[in-house]
């Protein structure tokens, strides 16, 4: 450790090595015995349940309407001219669209505990662009003022510094109030167990998807004869590619397959339970990631509502709060809202029955119901058709 790093460590600063793919929040995922010493976010996504949960949350939030409202007293109106609203409706000044940037941002927070977007402003200080910053290229330091400095590398040796107010920093739950910590690292034993079950399944299939057996021979074999027989047998009949080949034995030899072990018989159930464990970490109902083992049509519909209410809504609130903190001035009348109403509408019969009750009780009028459904006012529609 260099002098600067020792001083930073003594002063309580956190520093990550840009040359290393390991994020500190992943150190707890590694095991000391028989397990890789490094597990990165990319390696974790090799687990299909992790990838599916991250995709389900990040994609859903990236593609819902992002609306900017201006509050005036007790009323609020949508502000289509606000820079955030314009960026959300059109393509950003990069190769990424708004959904791309938001999806990458949220996925980074789900996998590493932190997601970062650079705020780009024009010469007059107005918001002009949002750029996603991969977290593995970021080194964070706490300044003497208490603010965070984000040193961003480009992977080629160049560094530039961004300060709070110049970034949107999305955090998962934090231990120190500064940086988020990945929930996968908080449940390292669970992640390790799922990976070990998958590894066992791979080896089981690689060895022919069947247990080994016994070859009985009359008399006694020498050590060299046993090694030769074992080598020839494995070469011709071992592995999934050799499954089903005809076995020919001579010299009075007989083959007796061993019975499948209870551990191998329960392998499928173990892997299915691993999917449930990962879903539990992310708060995603299993049917959302196509885990239908215990699914019915009734609980599938409820799973969507549960997903929106208890998983998407908390993340949406965190995103709205981060935009308010970093992009809207203190005391501003503007606010961002991620419209999750599409997830909360329920089935058509239930939704329209709720609309009828709202109209009958005077809570809404027909024009407001049309607005909720995303339709134009009837007068405008009639005029356009005419």
TrEMBL record:
> Known Pfam families for this protein?
Phage_portal
The transmembrane segments are: none
The record ties this protein, via InterPro entries, to: Phage/GTA_portal, Portal_HK97
Checking NCBIfam families in the record gives: portal_HK97
Protein name, please?
Phage portal protein
At the highest ranks, the source species' classification is: Bacteria, Pseudomonadati, Pseudomonadota, Alphaproteobacteria, Sphingomonadales
């Amino acid at each position: 450790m260099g002098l600067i790093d020792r001083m930073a460590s003594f002063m309580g600063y956190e520093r990550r090595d840009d040359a290393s793919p390991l994020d500190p929040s992943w150190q707890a995922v590694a095991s000391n015995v028989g397990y890789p010493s490094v597990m990165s976010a990319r390696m974790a996504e090799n687990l299909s349940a992790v990838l599916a949960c991250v995709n389900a949350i990040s994609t859903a939030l990236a593609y819902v309407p992002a609306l900017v409202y201006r509050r005036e007293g007790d009323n609020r109106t949508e502000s289509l001219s606000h820079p955030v609203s314009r960026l959300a409706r059109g393509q950003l000044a990069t190769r990424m669209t708004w959904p791309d940037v938001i999806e990458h941002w949220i996925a980074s927070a789900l996998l590493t505990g932190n997601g970062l977007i650079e705020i780009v402003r024009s010469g007059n200080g107005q918001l002009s662009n949002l750029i996603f910053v991969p977290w593995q290229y970021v080194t964070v330091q706490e300044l003497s003022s208490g603010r965070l400095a984000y040193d961003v590398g480009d992977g080629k040796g160049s560094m530039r510094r961004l300060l709070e107010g110049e970034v949107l920093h999305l955090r998962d739950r934090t231990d120190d109030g500064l940086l988020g910590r990945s929930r996968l690292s908080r449940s390292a034993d669970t992640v390790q167990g799922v990976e070990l079950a998958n590894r066992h399944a791979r080896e089981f299939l690689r060895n022919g998807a069947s247990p080994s057996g016994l070859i009985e021979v009359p008399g006694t074999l020498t050590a060299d004869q046993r090694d030769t027989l074992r080598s020839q047998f494995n070469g011709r009949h071992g592995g999934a590619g050799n499954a089903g080949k005809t076995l020919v034995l001579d010299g009075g030899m007989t083959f007796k397959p061993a019975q499948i072990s209870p551990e191998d018989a329960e392998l499928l159930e173990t892997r299915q339970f691993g999917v449930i464990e990962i879903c539990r970490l992310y708060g995603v109902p299993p049917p959302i990631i196509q885990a239908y083992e215990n699914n019915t049509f009734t609980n599938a519909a409820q799973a969507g509502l549960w997903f929106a209410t208890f998983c998407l809504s908390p993340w949406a609130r965190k995103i709205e709060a981060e935009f308010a903190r970093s992009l809207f001035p203190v005391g501003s009348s503007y606010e961002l809202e991620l419209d999750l109403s599409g997830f909360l509408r329920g089935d058509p019969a239930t939704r329209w029955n709720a609309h009828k009750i709202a109209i009958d009780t005077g809570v809404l009028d027909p024009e407001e119901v049309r607005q909720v459904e995303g339709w134009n006012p009837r007068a405008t529609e009639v005029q356009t058709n005419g």
